[in-house]
Amino acid sequence: MSTHNVRDDQLPRGAGTGPADAAITPSASVILLRGQPFEVLLMRRAEKSSFVPGAWVFPGGIVEAEDRGADEQATARACAVRELAEEAGVRLPGISGLVWTARWITPVGVPKRFDTWFFLAELPAGQTPAVDDREGVELRWFTPVAALEGHRRGELAMVFPTIKTLESLLPWPSIPALFAARQGATIPTTRPVIVTENGQKKVVLPD
Question: Which is deepest, 23, 92, 140, 199, by most CB within 10 Å?
Answer without folding.
Answer: 92
